[in-house]
Amino acid sequence: MIQPSPGVPTWIDLATADLPDATRFYTELFGWEADVSGDEYGGYTTFRLDGHAAAGAGPLFGKGQPTAWSTYVATDDADAVADRVEAAGGKVLVAPFDVMYQGRMAAFLDPGGAPFSVWQPGSMRGAEVFDVPGALTWNELATRDAERAAAFYGAVFGWLGREISVGGRPYLAWELGGEIVAGMRVLDGSWPADLPPHWMVYFSVIDCAEAAGYAGSLGGRVLRAPASLPIGRCALLEDPQGGAFALLQSASS
Fold it and tell me: Three-state DSSP class for 67?
C-alpha cells in the first residue's frame, strides 16, 4: 500500500452524539459499509466504499463536544508537528499518542480556533479511496484571519497559499511541492457571525441536487442549497446530529 505523503490530508472521521444513527445516515447516503472495531478500539467504525476505507466515526470524547467531522493531515513525525504547532501559535489539544499498532495521532487548534489532527501511519495508512462518488474529494479551512492561517499552516506543514477566485469570491489554494492539497475560504459577512472557524470535508457525488434531497429524506438538513461554481455543483449539509459536511459534483463529471 502506498505511504501517504506528509503534509497531505489523508483521513477524516466523525465524532458523533449518536453513532448508530450516524451510521444509518451515512451508509444510506454514500453506499458505505460499516466495519465496527472491537472493544479495544471503543467500537470505532470504519466506513468502507467497495471494500476500501473511506472515513471513520466514533462517539464523542466528552460532554459538550459537538458532533463534527475532523480532518487528519499525514505526517511522518506527529511529535515534531506538535512542536511546530506550539511554536507557530497553535494549541495542542491531544498530545501525540499511539493508537496501538494502527498509527500515531495528535489533535490541535490553529491560531484562529479551527481544530485539525495529524496521522502518522502504522498499519493503518489512511483513506484508501478519494475523488470518486461517496469518497472524500476536498478539505477546506474556513477562517476569519486568512493571513494568520497562511503563516501558521506554512510553518507547520510547509504549505504555500495561492490566491484564486471561486465563483467571484477570493479563495486560497494550499500547495505542497507544486500540488494543490487543500483550500481556504474566509468567513465573511455572508456567514453567521457565531460560526466558528473549522475544517470542512467535501464528498464527491454524481448529482448534487439529488444527493442533497436524499440526505434530507434521511433526516439531514440542507444548510446551503446546491449552487453552481466553476469547479462544479456544491451544497452544504448537516447530518441528523448536527455534523456539517459538503457535497461536490465535479464540473468534469
Answer: coil
Q: What is the pLDDT of residues 24-77, one digit of tens each?
A: 999 999 999 999 987 766 779 999 999 999 999 999 987 788 999 999 999 999
Nearest to 97 by CA among 85, 105, 108, 107: 105
What pLDDT is attached to residue 1?
A: 43
The strand pair at 115-121 and 68-74 is best described as parallel
Distance between CA 103 and CA 27 in Å, rounded? Answer: 25
Rounded-to-integer distance, Cα 156 and Cα 213, Å: 39
Burial-class residue 123 by CB neighbours within 10 Å (0-12, 13-18, 19+). exposed
3-state SS assignment for residue 22: helix
* Residue range 217-251, pLDDT digits in tens: 999 999 999 998 878 899 999 999 999 999 999 87
Cell, residue 16? 458523533
Assess whether 162 and 224 both reside in one domain. yes
User: Does some domain include residue 207?
Assistant: yes
What domain range is 95 assigned to? 9-121
Q: Are residues 113 and 157 in the same domain?
A: no
Distance of CA 126 to the CA centre of its chain: 12
